[in-house]
Amino acid sequence: MQAAVNALRAGGRVVWIDGAAPLVARRLEELLSAPPTDETPSSIPSTAPKLSSAELRNRFHHYKPSTLAHLLALIIHPPSSFPPPDTSLIVIDSLSTLFDNAYPRNADDRSTRNKNDAVRWAAGRKFAVLNDLSSALRKTAALHNNSVLLTCQTITRMRSGARALLLPAMSGGDWDSGISTRLVLFRDWLPVEGPWSAEDDDRMRRARFIGVVKANGVSLAGEGGVGRVIPFTIETAGLHDLNLTTADITPQPQPQTVGTSLAQAVRPPKRAFAEIADSEDEEDGPDSDQLYGWAEDDDVAAEGLLIIEQQPSAPAVPPSHTAQGADAAAGRSEMPAG
């Protein structure tokens, strides 16, 4: 909404398209009625016309498509009046909601056995529609010399053996390549103790952050990263910069608790990399059974699992016969096959 107000004050028109929640008209009126501050963006030229809040409101065009099909008809097959002349910014709010409603995610359809032809066709069709919309938006921006701003939610991707990642709800090869700049908005709780006043302390509690993930087609962050982080606050008159340094937000080291000390004390010792034997013949150090006590534990645990069959005792054999039988058995085991 702040970007829309800046575009209006620069002398252009703004097209706002709702994808989920309706536009908060009261908040828009507050931003339009607020006087310009010292933090006015440099993108607003000094020669821009001074318009009243009513005149700025007349240059704001609001659309509310109920479904994804209505949005596609407006963007891909636009009427002659869309976008209005002198439009400098097109905002589509919560675009991912329209796609989720048109192509809902069903956990039961993720297994291969539940995927029929209709489900496979819908999954492939979603990406085809997404690519068509991306091409139409790029064409609109090039023909009418305006910018397109999209907002969408994030989803959580779980991977086996790795941490969870927050990713855009809308992604794909062609879609990502068509996006010039990507920002991520998030909030974090900063330490309130610091060398600042009570007013600054209140602003710290309301701090928000923008992560520049991609700028002018160049990726600035890896997978799961947020790139360059810029802090700001939301005030009545709009967005305000928040001056922070790394020393202000770096948490102090926490004292080690007794529980942590005990947890570290019971860890089994590890052999250094240089001490690892190069072959199985080296037996300088204790083996794993002696080091961890596995042999003793396995013997105790196996006592209740062994079933001993009672067999009648055989007659005693003279020692000479026993030795011969052992030699014969050893000869059979050493005989090569064939």
UniProtKB/TrEMBL annotation:
InterPro entries: HR_Repair_Mediator (IPR052093), P-loop_NTPase (IPR027417). It is found in: Nucleus. One of its GO terms (cellular component) is replication fork. The keyword DNA repair applies. It comes from Lophium mytilinum. The keyword Membrane does not apply. It comes from the Eukaryota. Transmembrane segments: none annotated. GO terms for biological process: meiotic DNA recombinase assembly; reciprocal meiotic recombination. This is DNA recombination and repair protein Rad51-like C-terminal domain-containing protein. Keywords: ATP-binding, DNA damage, DNA repair, Nucleotide-binding, Nucleus. Residues 277-287 have a biased composition (Acidic residues).
